[in-house]
Design a protein that fits this description.
Number of strands: 16
CATH architecture: 3-Layer(aba) Sandwich
CATH class: Alpha Beta
Strand content: 15-25%
CATH topology: Carbamate kinase
Radius of gyration: 17 Å
Shape: globular
Helix content: 25-40%
Distance between the termini: 18 Å
Length: 262
């Protein structure tokens, strides 16, 4: 089983989205069981801008007011989820779109973010504290490809915004995936960004954990998700550029990106 986090600007390019869908279907035909967890940052930004709503990021995570949460749900659970499902089905797959709220797939808790010793309230942002894999495993057993929007909820049913990387890592760990693959807008993890010669081809989870405080804000959730996936049961994680041709095939074969191993 391979859990794929799909996001970044590759989602906004029709040709890249079609290529992604074809690769996901090919992965299933080859005997793997793909599970897709999608983001939608560019689409959310476009929707917020259209509505004249400003948003703020802290350590790569969006500060989420109730007003922004409404937009996040509309975009992720509606527009983006339907688009990804449609692309995979058009490529010959049998995709089913669900959210973290469906069948209590994920539950989350609000927790202040500690940054440089200071407690920061991110609003309606959740950290996943439980994953119920039964719906996903049932869909896989029936030959479907689950496509998951990362919106979650707390124990009282209040919707919470969960970073898609973090959601994918938690789901990959709970499913004991052989690989948690994070497709993004960069080639992998760089020791000294933006020095392209500093790309790290593979790194142990211990070394990645030590490197974490030095990383850029956008990379922090991705490496955190890689570590969480491994810590909770996934075999390994990989970060790779989703904008290149053959992104999934090359990542699964281990020829691109950064491998994080236990």
């Amino acid at each position: 089983m391979i859990v794929i986090k799909y996001g970044g600007h590759a989602m906004t390019d029709a040709n890249l989205q079609s290529a992604f869908a074809n690769e996901v279907v090919s992965l299933q035909i080859s005997g793997k069981q793909p599970v897709v967890v999608h983001g939608g940052g560019p689409q959310i930004e476009a929707a917020l801008e259209k509505l004249g709503i400003k948003s703020e990021f802290i350590s790569g995570l969006r500060v989420t007011t109730p007003e922004i949460m409404n937009v996040v749900q509309q975009v992720l659970c509606g527009e983006v989820l339907r688009s990804v499902v449609s692309s995979i089905n058009n490529a010959g797959g049998k995709a089913v779109g669900i959210t973290g709220r469906d069948s209590n797939l994920t539950t989350a808790i609000r927790k202040p973010k500690i940054i440089k010793g200071e407690s920061i309230d991110l609003g309606l942002v959740g950290e996943i504290d439980h994953v119920n894999t039964s719906l996903v495993t049932t869909l896989l057993a029936d030959g479907h490809i689950p496509v998951i929007a990362p919106v979650s909820q707390d124990k009282n049913g209040e919707p919470l915004n969960v970073n898609a990387d973090i959601a994918a890592g938690a789901i990959a760990g709970a499913l004991k995936a052989e690989l948690a693959l994070f497709l993004t807008d960069v080639s992998g993890l760089y020791r000294s960004w933006p020095d392209e010669s500093s790309l790290i081809s593979e790194i142990s989870s211990n070394d990645a954990r030590e490197l974490l405080p030095t990383l850029s804000a956008g990379m922090i959730p991705k490496i955190t998700a890689c570590l969480n996936a491994i810590d909770s049961g996934a075999t390994c994680s990989r970060i790779s550029d989703g904008r290149i041709s053959g992104a999934i095939t090359n990542a699964v074969s281990g020829t691109v990106g950064t491998l994080v191993y236990s």
